[in-house]
């Protein structure tokens, strides 16, 4: 099967709701009392129930991004995001890729809880932060601070200021990194949000964030 990439067919909040509803529908269709189930059916029911719980946690975390993280960034930068889904894509943690891939592979196409394209795109959201981080980094260096130093400390501090790492969607699916790995993740997240601001608002919107980077360097 071939899939397209780009925007979801509907807002992320609605996609998560439909995904949960579809998973529960498939669970009920497969359900049999324990004494009548085969071991294979029991394993399948456990998988579907696990997917349902995991996507429920993702939906809750995405709602927190919309209600808390996004307004904080908008207030500090003066940039009004086009909607909550762009930031949610940036904050989708890598382990979610495996979750959506498993769901996509776990059903015949005509029995998928949501359309195949939406599941495939959800699985690719985890890659968006790296692409936008590159855009943010290059734009800062070439158009906003040419010849200047975009310090790692300032980026990590900006990530902390906005609570980006704690707001990652799917962050509970793995152990949190520490040390240098944690700092690298924070820098990538900050660059990715800056990249998103540039893509949506242009150079002037990104330039307005520079004082926050300076604040991070000086504490």
Summed up:
The chain has 219 residues and is mainly alpha-helical.
Task: Describe, in plain words, how this protein is organized in 3D.
- With 219 residues, this protein is an all-alpha fold.
- It has one domain.
- Helices cover 68% and strands 0% of the residues.
- The chain contains nine helices and no strands.
- α4 (95-105) runs antiparallel to α5.
- The chain is elongated.
- It comes from Methanoculleus submarinus.
- This is RNase III domain-containing protein.
Number of helices: 9
Element-level helix/strand string? HHHHHHHHH
- Rounded to the nearest angstrom, the radius of gyration is 20 Å
The number of E-state strands comes to: 0
The rough form would be described as elongated
Briefly note the structural class of the backbone.
mainly alpha
Topology:
Blueprint: H1 12-30, H2 39-77, H3 85-90, H4 95-105, H5 116-124, H6 128-144, H7 152-162, H8 179-207, H9 210-218
What keywords describe this structure?
219 residues, RNase III domain-containing protein, mainly alpha
